[in-house]
Amino acid sequence: MSRVKLLWSILIIIGCQTNHYKDSIVLDNGVRVKFFEVSTCDKNQDKRYANFNISAKTKNGKLVFSSKYQSLESVSSFYYDSLLAFGMGELFEELCEGDSVLFSIPSVMFIKGIFHNNSTTKFKSVNETDSLDVHLKFISFNNDVEQYNFQKQLINRAKKKEAMMISVKRNEWSTKYLDIFNYDDLFSVKVAQSHQDIPEKSDSVKEFIAIKYLITDLNDREIYKTKGNLNEYYDKSLNDQLLEGFKILVDHYNIGDSVVAVMPSKMAFGKRGSLVNMIAPYTPLKVSLKIIQK
I want to staple 67 with a disulfide (CB 3.0 to 4.6 A). Which of 22, 41, 71, 182 is the partner? Predict the structure, then answer.
């Protein structure tokens, strides 16, 4: 379907539409696409890279992917040519910067098409049989130079935002807690001490660190929590098992201590973030940790 035909089909109906979206069309593969915004653009534009804001949810509203939580400054970037191999290539060829669309597709199609992976195991709350509601907001199409500068801007913005968030939280803590432990941009406080659930150390486990913990972002969005009363064990001989921030806390505090800490991204998931755990690059974290064994 040509861009002219696509826009013409939309404009015919816009005048009589009362819905919040402007129109919907059906692609050759049978997928119905709803348009919230329709823009115009130069079809000869260099489209080396494509930048989107993406949100994908199951039919019962569980978030599977979100640029807000899994991409740099809410922007998911892709090589444009790789998107044309996606089952929605017809749509990507016709859309312009600023267009906003919604469509439903199988989860496997979304994950394979966008991330070139056949497995749904890296994504929370999704099965291969699920259908996903996908909302795409097109931000920009860039050539090599434009994308390089765009990425630099996003990185600088993310770093400044992280520094501001840590500064605000540090100031808040300074009026709330005494005896704050500071290590570079990490700061923590002991909130309790109990040996009630500390096991006897046996020879088989003495080479392991055991902890229970909760990770949230600084807005208290829960990211990960150890299951029930189970401890998580980490081999002391393996340097890359524990995040750097966790190592610092375990080294500083004692067995039985419960602590709360703010951890900068450089001591957590850094500039890459974590796709599986929905942690965007340069995201500082709040950790509630109990040391069971060290």
Answer: 71
